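A student in our group prepared the protein record below, which I am reviewing. This is what I was given:
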Amino acid sequence: LSSAMQSSQQKLAEKLTILDDRGVGMLTRIYNIKKVRRCDVTRVGKPRVIGEKGWGVSQQLTQLQKDKSEILKSLALYYFTFVDEHVGELLNNIDSCQVFFDITVNFDLTKNFLDLVVCYATLLMLLSRIEERKAIIGLYNYAHEMTHGSSDREYPRLGQMIVDYENPLKKMMEEFAPHNKLLSNALVSLQTVYPRRNLSADQWRNAQLLSLISAPNAKLNPVQSDTMPCEYLSLDTMEKWIVFGFLLSHTALNSEPAALSLWKLALQSGSCLCLFRDEVFHTHKACEDLLVGLRGCELSLHSGSMHRERRRFLRSALKELATVLSDQPGLLGPKALFVFMALSFARDEIVWLLRHTDNVPKKNADDFTDKHMAELIFYMEELRSQVWKYGPVIQRYYVRHLSGFDAVVLDELVQNLSMCSEDESVIISSFVNTMTSFSVKQVEDGEVFDFRGMRLDWFRLQAYTSISEASLGIAEHQELGKTMNTVIFHTKMVDSLVEMLAETLDLSIFCFYSRPFEKMFQQCLELPSQSPHSIAFALLCTHELCPEEQHHIGDRSLSLCNMFLDEMAKQARNLITDICTEQCTLSNRLLPKHCAKTISQAVNKKSKKPTGKKGDLEHEKPGVESTRKDRLLVTSLDKLRTALSELCFSINYVTNMTVWEHTFTPREYLTSHLEMRFAKSIVGMTMYDQATQEIAKPSELLASVHAYMTMLQSMENHVQIDITRVFNNVLLQQTQHLDSHGEPTITSLYTNWYLETLLRQVSNGHIAYFPAMKAFVNLPTENELTFNANEYSDISEMRALSELLGPYGMKFLSESLMWHISSQVAELKKLVVENVEVLTQMRTSFDKPEQMGTLFKKLTSVDSVLKRMTIIGVILSFRLLAQEALRDVLSCHVPFLLSSIEDFKDHIPRETDMKVAMNVYELSSAAGLPCEIDPALVVALSSQKSGEARTAEARDVKAHFCMFFFLLFIIVIALAAALFTIHKGSIEDRLKEFLALALSSLLKIGQETDKLSLIVQESPFLTMDLLESRFPYVLLRNAYHAVYKQSVSTSSA
């Protein structure tokens, strides 16, 4: 009891736990002092008072006096980081108690002791690398002295420590001389663990390590091991124990063969070790400097190939493990140890490669470059997700194992123990009672388990039973230690799965190797076979570090995750673009313009005419590319689709991920990139050349867009994205003048082309409108046009244009056309005002031919009027074609909606307010339906309406304005309705007056009498009865009969 009390009074377990945790925190702080430069006081890093060019000691005393409070505040955190005297005291206590260390028996005690030694050595080595350590201590003490009148009491010791540990390893070798035996005994206990872990890939392969299918009959048997916690212990950690431990207790290398064997084996594994994060320790160079005669540089020449083969083996082993467990998750119970062993082995190899990539001369670059790293990381993440997903399965299994097997075995051991003190017996009995109280119902009820107290008690019991004077010595009862180590592992499977994953899967070191990290990612994207695993790099960014480091490390993780997902989406977008380009090319071969050659060959073959010159290849028909003579034949399109499916697997792997309280959705990255590329592709497929004014025909563009959309729709087979949303966003933006990025759309391009190219050539007399063909046709001129107007304005092309632009785009086209009409009307108004007096006289003298002839000669700018009227007529004719095409398209897509709109339009009562009627007309016009009053023209002309009250003179101007329209009935109908709607005049009365004027003029000149019937037919405001009252229809019938007889005689002649 006294010995147990003596051990409990020392509190070795508690002190080791606290000092190890404190050591990690101090390492983090010292690392940040070294790495971060000139940061604000509120951030982790060097204080602002330390400049780049000096230590600050040479500054003027007045400046130091002024800044003393700031110096004390900013340097206190770093100054007291260096104050620590507890490690040496604890080592002395452990040495005086003659503690027994064996990693296979008292695992927790031995591991924490070795961690403390390595952490202490690492701290002092990192401290010696801080160039400003003297400045920090000196400045703080100087400011303290000026503030309090005396030096800090820790300053002499700290100053002496800085001087003594200029070469930390040499000093520690002297300091650890009294602890050599203790340390070497702990290290030598690794001889049963480390050599077994440090095997070659061939040895692993021969032993069928980590394989669940090598022994099918034993698949359900639990994995058993006497050294359970050592199986997943980090190899990197053991190598640091061995190298640093034997450097500090180097005498054991000469006296114990086992120590020398471990030392050489550790040196063979690599040439550098990780001190902390990206700070490394070059082992071979240090050994040459410190230990003469123990050289090891030549031993690492082949370590690169050894680790490369290990990574190759682990890739296949982890893939097999993940595949089997995903199919049979129940095996996670008995084979959980395999999962954590696999994660630990893979993590060690990744960390080794990262460390040596940046810190070893590249004698063999292939050994230090791994283009398949993504696959290994991916299967590690796959195993982690399975442990997370099937955690309850693991809990159920080990709760049963603890209560039904471990408790029984431990109870038998307790019964056979001799010389067991009461305190020790109580602790061990409590273990048995705790385990027997478990039941599966607790798991099913969602009860939270917590075995931290039990594990801490076992840690304390190890400390009690490991001292030399213990009544129950664990050295004599090693079976108890091994059994309890297994029990502790089983308890961790119940309540500490998250901590176990963090221990074996922590790859947060990638955050400090940004360049190799990004390089591995780029290599992954370059290899199609590795692209399915590219999501692993983004998943690595989800590992969190110290919360105080969120400012710089968290932001770096966020930027890396964003960059990885963005690059993956860009790669997928580029592949999709290439596939769509191929599909558009194939679709283009199906256009009617490409069938001429095929028809020509068929006709020549039937008439047995020569098909062409000798050696000419026969025209290849569309669809030939799908014929395969050999299934091994792979086309470029096949390769693109394969690469796309592989990459989409990675993008679709997770729905979202959380990184430092930010949520990332990989599919949204792809969606946004597809939207931008689809928009650019549609505009690019117009092939608009501003210099030559060339543009793709609407039907050809529509075929290409359909091919592009068909390919994008197939994306839903690869990744779960809403491609309909992409279509809606992009195509809707293309119906506007500019898209969301301010770039021109197909609506603006085609509107500009039709207005500035096609219709302008009509005004110039190179193109004419043929009502019978409902198209514009090229006229024979000296300078041939570069395009055929009929191929851009016939009904099929206008329908294709309406399909592309939609109602919104066609409305914009109409508004642009009306704007041009309004500008022409404005000029015509000026001419009317200029001739208003003559027009007034002509209005009252239309039945006096001689006076009308005299007045007509007084009119000015008659040719200008006719030219502008022609322009208006051309624009209105084109708009009629566009509206008719839009109506045809909508009748196919939304026939019920279109019929409802048409019903609204046809049943507007005559007494309806004009504002209400205009709303219905606007709706009808947007659907392509003809209206009595054109709302777009009304809006365009309304902008020219003067705000002044109408006068009698203004009314006369509007009335005489109609006289210029008697040859162009379309202009008469449209403009008359719009103008008199704006100026609230009687449309019927004005058109009746125009009809009377037109009749008088036509009868006097004796020609074009048939045009009047067309005006009446097209106008909703005129009737045939009115025409009959003014002009007997028998005259029109005779005129038609005369025209028919003339055409017959001409054709027979």
In short: The longest strand covers residues 272-276. The CA atoms of residues 925 and 931 lie 7 Å apart. Residues 795-834 form the longest helix (40 residues). The two ends are 139 Å apart (CA to CA).
